[in-house]
Amino acid sequence: MMPFPYQITAVEGRARAGVLKTARGEIRTPAFMPVGTAATVKALTVDQVAATGADIILGNTYHLMLRPGPERMERLGGLHQFMGWDKPILTDSGGFQVMSLAGISKVKEEAVTFSSHIDGSKHVLTPERSIEIQADRIGADISMQLDQCVAYPAERDAARKAMELSIRWGARSKARFGAREAQALFGIQQGSTFEDLRRQSSEQLQEIGFDGYAIGGLAVGEGHQAMCEVLDYAPEFLPADRPRYLMGVGKPVDLVEAVWRGVDMFDCVLPTRAGRHGQAWTWDGPLNLKNARFAEDQDPLDETSRCPASSGYSKAYLHHLIRADEILGKVLLSWHNIAFYQALTAAMRAAISEGRFERFRRDFHARHTSNG
Length: 372
Description:
Helix 6 (127-138) crosses helix 7 and helix 10 (252-260) packs antiparallel against helix 15. By secondary structure, the chain is an alpha/beta fold. The chain contains 15 helices and 16 strands. The relative contact order is 0.13. The termini are far apart.
């Protein structure tokens, strides 16, 4: 019996719309999870994030274990109470840092050893400790197994070894997690760009048995086309009746193409990171508000949006804020970008439900890519 029932409400081709029902509320899929790396979606309040339509956010286990620390977080009531977010939270396992912080980490069968990027202190992360931090200390609604992610391009042998280690770590993660009524655990498919390895990974994950399944090892430099080639087969290896989560993705076009191929959930730092650097994502593509052409543009980013940042300020004003390096500019563009991503997933849910997602995808490409 899965702790979180997943109801698929509509299907068009391989695209699915559905609802994942959790103890803290429903997650409508396709879903985009804003990233709250260190107990905050950067530059935004939880009320702002919720107002964009986000049903769930992501917390980063690696960063939270360094500060404020898992035991302190538990004493403070867990991440939900700590940051004032009462909807679901998914936490990553810390495994991505195995790759991204490769210069200060060491992977062995038992654990991954990190040197903190903050103060150089040593930390040991086993599959069991990762689950303890996520589920027991942070109090995540959805925890992820500890896995090993390899960089792109990957040699086949390296991809195979990382995939097999991830399977063994997945079994240890599941054993530590056990059976819970109000929390879920997702397994992570690995295998880089090798179809047979991803098939093997999926089969062995299903033998262990997880509440949902993620597609890991993408968004690591392979590019949009290579990612799509993997997604042509990878989602289909996973159970059709459980949510499929593509980790660390991505640009709006990545989301549309992944949903077309059967993916349900996403997370990415791009909306807020882009916002802090003056970039706004829109239906007509990305806009660089630093550009002089916006200096006297009195139109808002999206006059039809319910988000105040999107409809309530002119591009000229946003241009001024960004050029003047005002904090408000970073806040408004981050807010707008999160709202745009939520509007995009809402539009995809509606298109799938109404049987017009193929047309939506075609029209999106025509409009969104016309400005580069």
